[in-house]
Amino acid sequence: MRLKDKVAIVTGSGRGIGEGIVLRFAEEGAKIIVNDVNELDAKNVVDKIKASGGQAVAVIGSVADRSVVQKMVDTAVKEFGTLDIIINNAGITRDVILHKMTDEQWDSVIAVNLTGVFYGIQCAARVMREKGYGKIINVSSTSALGNAGQLNYSATKAGVIGMTKTAAKELGPKNVNVNAIAPGMIWTDMMKNMPPEQIKQMDAMLPFIVPLNRKGSPQDIANLALFLASDESSFITGQIIFCDGGMKM
């Protein structure tokens, strides 16, 4: 198993991409801290992991709260003895055209998608620096390159790229790898809940905007995250890997 006895935190892992990552990691032997703001979702994922013979603990709360992020790290160390991997995946959208965007829509996205990632990097790094080992993986987005109606979201995902590269430079000497994944169109509940007409329009455009001519799945992201979290990627750091079917190449 590629992550046997490794301890991993995955934020926003109650559903979607985060859930796909923790289930894949558990298959590969990792011990997991599952985090989500939705207690039922988080506990359901923990139950799935335990039912398949894995080990997992839920920590409920928003990554916009530093104390919640610190609790994840403390719980990892208390329950499993250490922390090897953190996936800063939690994110929200508050999409609206820029001239109509409210301060709340801006501030809430910044708090979760940018400040929450900062908390995750910083709290995990304090453990990883001491042990001389760690894998930090941040989830950015193809929207980091700009997307109409997502000024707030795009700003945070571009910010994640800058944080990733800076953290990689600072933590590299301590044998901590820091990389980011930038997903494209991933078929999650967030996308499935779009208006049917919007989904229909998106599907019609798919052959023209995604060379591989399909939407991605959480498993596509999970497989990439697994590689970056494993020792197979030990000489890779500071990289932003687009997992988007070629959409932004």
Structural class of the helices, strands and pairings?
A: alpha/beta
Q: Describe the main β-sheet briefly.
A: 7 strands, parallel
Number of β-strand runs: 7
H and E order? EHEHEHEHEHEHHHE
Q: Within the largest sheet, what's the order of strands?
A: 3-2-1-4-5-6-7
Describe the overall structure.
The chain has a single domain (7-189, 217-243), classed as NAD(P)-binding Rossmann-like Domain (Rossmann fold). The protein contains 8 helices and 7 strands. It has a 7-stranded parallel beta sheet, with helices on both faces. The longest helix has 29 residues, at 103-131. Helices cover 48% and strands 15% of the residues. The chain has 249 residues and is α/β, with parallel strands linked by helices.
Please render the helix and strand layout as text.
Elements: E1 7-10, H1 16-27, E2 31-36, H2 39-51, E3 55-60, H3 66-80, E4 85-88, H4 103-131, E5 134-139, H5 151-171, E6 176-183, H6 189-192, H7 196-209, H8 218-229, E7 240-243
Parallel strand pairs: 1-2, 1-4, 2-3, 4-5, 5-6, 6-7
